[in-house]
Amino acid sequence: MSKADLNPAAGTAPDSAPDSDPGPAAVASAYQRFEPRAYLRNNYAPPRGDLSHPDGVGPWKLRCLAQTFATGEVSGHSLIDIGSGPTIYQLLSACAHFEDITLTDFLEVNRQELGLWLREEPGAFDWSTYSRHVCLIEGKGESWQEKELQLRARVKRILHIDVHQPQPLGAGSPAPLPADALVSTFCLEAVSPDLASFQRALDHITTLLRPGGHLLLIGALEESWYLAGEARLAVVPMGKEEVMEALVRSGYEVRDLSTYVMPACLQTGVDDVKGIFFAWAQKKVAV
C-alpha cells in the first residue's frame, strides 16, 4: 500500500502543516517525514489488520484481487506495482500469473522496507497472516510459505518512481516496458494535490502499460488526510464517479469498480477515510 510517490523537483520546503498548502512543495516536504513502520502499524496490524472477520477491509481487498486474477484474464510476463510503499500484500495473488514483477516507490525508506522482506532479514514486517489468508481464499492447497517463496522469486527489482513525471521510471529503466499489467494501491490520490494532478499521474503511469493490458487500482474514497508517524499527509478526496471518469479519460475500459464502506470500528483516528474502491480497468487498443 503506497502513499509515497511525489515529485522530487518540488524540493524540500521548510516544515509546515502539510494540509495548509495543497501544492507540490508541501506534499514533498510532508513525505520526508513518512514513517513506514508507523504506517504499517496503523493499517496492517489490528484492528485493520485483523483478517479473521470476512467483512473487514483487509479481507475485502484481498478478495477483490484474488477474484480478479482468478478470471485468468490478468496475466502475462511482466507486472509493475506502482507506488508499492512498504507493502507486498497487493501482489500475493498476482505472483502466480507474472514471471517478472517490479516494485517501485519514491521514498528510499519504503524501498528499504521492501528489501528487508524480500531478503527475509530479521526485523522485516511479518506478512504471513496475509499470505495465509490469500492461500485460504484461493483454495489451491498452497502453503503460505510456498506463496511467499514464489513472490520473492518473481520480484526482479525495486525501482525509484515519480508518478508526476511523464516518464515515471525515468529513461532507460531496467523494467520490461511496456508492462502487461499494473497494480497500484493507495498511491495516486495520496500524492496528488488535486484532481487534475491525479489525472496527470494516471496518464503518466498508463504510458508504462501495453495496449490491452490491465490496471488494478485500489484507493481511498473521500479521504483528506492520514498519519504515518509524525507525518500528517494530505489526500485528494475522491468519489466513485471521479475514479470512473479519470480512468475513462486515461483511455481505459472499466471492467469492474467496487466500493467498500469503512465501518465505525475501523475508523481509528489515523485518517478520515470513508471507504475504499477497487477498479479493474483495461487499456484500450487504438483502432
Automatic annotation (TrEMBL):
Location of region: Disordered: 1-26
Transmembrane segment boundaries: none
GO BP annotations, alphabetical order: catecholamine biosynthetic process; methylation
Family stated for the protein in its record: Belongs to the class I-like SAM-binding methyltransferase superfamily. NNMT/PNMT/TEMT family.
Catalytic activity: (R)-noradrenaline + S-adenosyl-L-methionine = (R)-adrenaline + S-adenosyl-L-homocysteine + H(+); (R)-normetanephrine + S-adenosyl-L-methionine = (R)-metanephrine + S-adenosyl-L-homocysteine + H(+); phenylethanolamine + S-adenosyl-L-methionine = N-methylphenylethanolamine + S-adenosyl-L-homocysteine + H(+); (R)-octopamine + S-adenosyl-L-methionine = (R)-synephrine + S-adenosyl-L-homocysteine + H(+)
Pathway assignment: Catecholamine biosynthesis; (R)-adrenaline biosynthesis; (R)-adrenaline from (R)-noradrenaline: step 1/1
E.C. number(s) listed in UniProt: 2.1.1.28
Name by which UniProt lists this protein: Phenylethanolamine N-methyltransferase
Entry GO terms, CC: cytosol
Keyword flag ATP-binding: no
Region forming the signal peptide: none
Enzyme class: transferase
